[in-house]
Amino acid sequence: MRVVVSGGSGFLGSHLCEALLRRRDRVCCLDNFSSGRVLNLAPMMSKPGFECIPGDVTDPLRVHGDVDAVVHLASPASPLDYARRPLQTLATGSRGTENLLELAVRHRARFVLASTSEVYGDPEIHPQDEDYWGHVNPVGPRSVYDEAKRFAEALTMAYRRSRGADTGIVRIFNTYGPRMRADDGRVVSTFVTQALDGEALTVFGDGGQTRSLCYVDDMVRGLLAMVDADLPGPVNLGNPCERTVRELAELVLMITGSDSGLCFLPLPVDDPVRRRPVITRAFETLGWQPQVPLEEGLRRTVAWFAARSDTSVPPPDS
Ligand code: NAD
Ligand code: UDP
User: Fold this and answer.
1) Residue 301 Ramachandran class (φ > 0 left, ψ -120 to 50 alpha, else beta)
2) Ligand 1 geometric centre to CA of 196 (Å)
3) How do strand 50-54 and strand 262-265 relate by DSSP bridges?
4) How far is CA 5 from the centre of its chain?
5) Is the shortest distance between the CB of 77 and ligand 1 below 6 Å?
6) What is the rounded distance in angstroms from the CA atom of residue 192 to the CA atom of residue 230?
7) Is 11 near ligand 1, meaning CB less than 6 Å away?
8) Measured from the CB, is residue 174 less than 6 Å from ligand 1?
C-alpha cells in the first residue's frame, strides 16, 4: 500500500510512519512542521518507500502517484499548541480535512480521521463510549480544537454518505511516549521533563482530575487496525487505566527517583474533570486492546527523555 500520512513528522505520526514502513507499506508524509520535527523523520529519510512533502494541508495538496490510504493526523494537538494557533487549528480541522477527503475520494483510498476524546468535552457520563454526544463549550478556549474535530467528524461522515468515501474515525484518548516535545505543555512530557530537571511538577488545580493514558506503541497498533478495516467508526482508542493527575505526578517522581516535589497552579478553563474510554467497540471490531501498563510505558518514556536534550521546537510565529 501507499499511505499518505498528514502530520507524519509529529509525535504519533512519526511512529505511525515507521510502523507502516516496517510492514513494507510506502509512506508519503505531509507536514508543515508547525509542531512536528524533522528529527522525528531522520530514521526514515533514507528508507526506501518513504517520502516527505513539506506543506500545509489547508493549501492545495501536491501528492502525485497512487494512494491506497490516507491517515489524517495533522492538527495542533496539545492545549498549549492549539491555544497558540486557534485559527490554524480550525482551518486544519475543516479545510485540511476536506482536502484530504478529496484526495482519498479521487484515489478510492481508505480515509482514517484522527479524532479525539475532546469531542466528549467535559463529559457528563463516565466512562465515555462512542454513543455519547459530548459536552463541549463551543465558545471556550478549547473550542477551536474540540469543534474543529467535531466538524472533521461530521465532514468525514458526509463524504461517506454523499460521496461513497471509505472512511473510518478513531477517537484517540491521551497518548504518551518517546518523541513528545518537552515543551508541548502536555502532562506526561511536562512532568517527566520537570522531574529530570529537578523542578517542581506543576499540578493544575488540586490534581484530582483524571486522565487515562495510552502508550504510543499501543495507539499505533490501533491506528493500523483501523487503516486495514472497513469500519466507519467512531471507535475509541485509549487505555482505560484511569489515574488522577496527582497520582500521575507521584508515579513520575517515583520512576525518575526525583525529589522535585509538586507545586499547584490554577486549573485551566474548561479542563475536563474526568476521562476514561470504553473500548469494547475497539476490542470487538478491531480485536484491539492496549498492552503496555502505565508504569512500563512511563519508564520507557523517562528513559527516552533522559537520553535526549533536544526535545523542543522553536516557538511558533503566530
Ligand atoms: P503533534 O503536534 O506531535 O503532531 C501533529 C502534526 O501535524 C505535526 O507534525 C504538525 O507539524 C502537523 N500539522 C499541524 N497542522 C498542520 C497543517 N495545517 N498542515 C500540515 N501539517 C500540520 O501531535 P500528536 O500528538 O502526534 O497528534 C496527532 C493527531 O492525533 C492530531 O490530529 C491530534 O488531534 C490527534 N490526537 C492526539 C492525542 C495525543 O494524546 N497525542 C490525543 C487525541 C487526538
Ligand atoms: N496538567 C497539569 N500540569 C501540567 C500539564 C497538564 O496538571 O503541567 C493537567 C491538565 O490540567 C489536565 C491533564 O493534566 O487536567 C492532562 O493535560 P494535557 O494537556 O496533557 O491533556 P488534555 O487536557 O488535553 O487531556
Assistant:
1) alpha
2) 25
3) unpaired
4) 13
5) yes
6) 38
7) yes
8) yes
Sheet holding 50-54, edge to edge: 50-54, 26-31, 2-6, 69-72, 110-116, 166-172, 235-237
Catalytic residues: 145
ipTM of this predicted structure? 0.99
Condensed to tens digits (0 to 9), the pLDDT of residues 106-127 reads 999 999 999 999 999 999 999 9
Query: What amino acid is encoded at 213 in this protein?
Result: L
Mutate to test the pocket of ligand 1, among 5, 63, 73 (most ligand atoms within 8 A of CB): 73
Phi-psi region of 241 (alpha: psi -120 to 50; beta: other; left: phi over 0): beta
CA–CA separation, 138 and 109 (whole Å) = 32
pLDDT in tens, 300-317: 999 999 998 655 544 443
Closest CA to 289 of 220, 237, 215: 237
Residue nearest to atom 13 of ligand 2 (CA): 187
